[in-house]
From TrEMBL:
Domain Histidine kinase: 248-458
Cited InterPro entries: HATPase_C_sf, HATPase_dom, His_kinase_dom, HisK_dim/P_dom, HisK_dim/P_sf, Sig_transdc_His_kin-like_C, TCS_sensor_his_kinase
Pfam family, one: HisKA
Lineage, top ranks: Bacteria, Pseudomonadati, Pseudomonadota, Alphaproteobacteria, Rhodobacterales
Coiled-coil intervals, chain numbering: 215-242
Keyword Phosphoprotein: yes
Native source organism of the sequence: Salipiger mucosus DSM 16094
Transmembrane segments: 6-26, 158-177
Alphabetically ordered keywords of this record: Coiled coil, Kinase, Membrane, Phosphoprotein, Transferase, Transmembrane, Transmembrane helix
Principal location listed in the UniProt entry: membrane
Protein name: histidine kinase
Record-listed E.C. numbers: 2.7.13.3
GO cellular component assignments: membrane
């Protein structure tokens, strides 16, 4: 109970209400003291009026008037003349005087506190203004013990009332907190438990209903989080199924392409000049298709084969990529260009770097054709101080924001509508396996540029 939010709120409320009552306790007691002394002055003034009505008052009646007023003597100042109106023998000397006429609140609180903590019965003098302008000053002498007893009695009543108010206030706030805060929070916790049991079930996602602004914001944030998590789980399940399907398809396709590869030997033996010219490209395409199936199977195992590093001519490799792309472009208004030194030799895995450049060029070509506008794709390379830099630029429409946010994540960074988003993820992994980096250096309505950096390392 005490460890719960509502239980601690109950305790804190009780403590704070009691603290507030304590802060007003002394001013209340000081006000009571002033009222008590004013009442004594008023009674003393009434008693003195009886004397003014009859100068020859009986001593016994005079004492009775003083006893009724609770004072020993009464002095009244009228017309700048102070006169002792009623008097009786005093038990001792006056210990202190208190002037109520111009006392500040701080002085009244201080005097009240001093009277509460002083248990001795002392003789005090009190000065004040007469009621109804009956003079300039009235002064009485009285004992302090009855005043202190009355103040203590009043203070106890105040404390008891404060305790009752604190308890009632705390209980009401306790009930309100349980109704408007604790209950909705428990509802959120129950929603979280149900969602944890079945995160794929969209029915377990919380629906914001809280009326409290902060709690509703928490519910909305939780709803967004649960929605994204549920979608991610469903996507991963579909991707797992897709991965199994791709692995099976790649396996069968590899067998088919391997069989087709056996027939290319006969094609190479043909005497037809066109066949002789195209046969090497067909053989190379089938070989790459077989390699692609094998690497797709490897990707399904969350790994790419380690690159086999050799030195090769980059210009020849890029030219081969662009020749294949020209066949795919067909009648579309897309031009291809390259700016690579003819003798530039780099070290890497030719098959994997062919896939890297081919993927980047293919993506650019598909973006330009999908845009329906003429465009240009350019591949350039240069040797920096310790690395080779290959740039693939295009004049296409640029990448969408979603693609830029998840650019190199499998199945999430698709650069075109309907794309799976696997190509750039494979490219990035192939480049990383070479110890290099792939980055998007620019993408807007004027085009896109990817940059591949490969370390030179030790060329000897």
């Amino acid at each position: 109970m005490l460890n719960s939010l509502s239980g601690r709120f109950l305790i804190l409320t009780t403590v704070f209400v009691m603290l507030a009552e304590v802060l007003i306790f002394l001013p209340s007691v000081a006000r009571f003291r002033v009222d008590y002394l004013d009442a004594r002055l008023e009674r003393a003034q009434i008693a003195s009026l009886a004397l003014l009505a009859d100068d020859m008052i009986d001593p016994e009646l005079e004492q009775e008037l003083l006893d009724n007023a609770g004072v020993y003597n009464v002095a009244l100042q009228r017309d700048a003349t102070r006169e002792l109106m009623l008097s009786s023998p005093m038990p001792g000397a006056v210990d202190a005087s208190f002037d109520l006429r111009d006392a500040t609140p701080w002085v009244l609180v201080r005097d009240a506190l001093a009277r509460l903590i002083d248990p001795q019965d002392r003789l005090i003098r009190v000065l004040g203004y007469p009621q109804r302008d009956a003079g300039e000053l009235i002064e009485v002498t009285m004992d302090s013990a009855p005043l202190r007893a009355a103040m203590i009695e009043y203070g106890l009543r105040i404390l008891m009332l404060s305790a009752v108010i604190s308890v009632i206030t705390a209980v009401l706030l306790f009930m309100a907190v349980r109704r408007f805060l604790v209950a909705p929070i428990k509802g959120v916790v129950n929603h979280m438990k149900r969602f944890a049991d079945a995160p794929e079930d969209a029915r377990s996602i919380i629906r914001p209903t809280a009326g409290v602004k902060e709690l509703r914001e928490a519910e909305e944030a939780l709803q967004s989080l649960e929605t994204q998590l549920s979608q991610s789980l469903r996507q991963k399940e579909r991707l797992a199924q897709l991965g199994g399907a791709v692995a099976r398809v790649s396996h069968d396709l590899r067998n088919i392409l391997t069989s087709a590869q056996l027939f290319t030997d006969r094609i190479e033996m043909s005497e037809d000049p066109a066949v002789k010219r195209l046969a090497p490209k067909l053989v190379g395409s089938i070989t790459r298709a077989v390699s692609l199936c094998e690497t797709t199977l490897a990707f399904g195992k969350a790994e790419e084969p380690a690159p086999v590093l050799t030195q090769f001519n980059l210009a020849a490799l890029v030219n081969e990529v662009l020749e294949a792309e020209r066949l795919a472009i067909g009648d579309h208004d897309v031009s291809l260009s390259e700016d690579i030194p003819a003798t530039m030799q780099i070290r890497g895995d030719p098959e994997q770097l062919y896939r890297v450049i081919a993927n980047l060029v293919r993506n650019a070509r598909q973006a330009i054709i999908g845009n329906g506008e003429p465009g240009e794709i350019s591949v350039s390379a240069r040797a920096a101080e310790s690395e080779w830099v290959i740039r693939v630029t295009d004049t296409g429409p640029g990448l969408p924001a979603k693609a830029r946010d998840h650019l190199f994540q499998p199945f999430q960074g698709g650069a075109r509508k309907g794309g799976a988003g696997l190509g750039l993820a494979i490219v990035a992994e192939l480049v990383r396996n070479h110890g290099g980096s792939l980055s998007l250096t620019g993408s807007d309505s004027h085009g896109t540029c990817f940059e591949v950096r490969l370390p030179m390392g030790d060329l000897t």
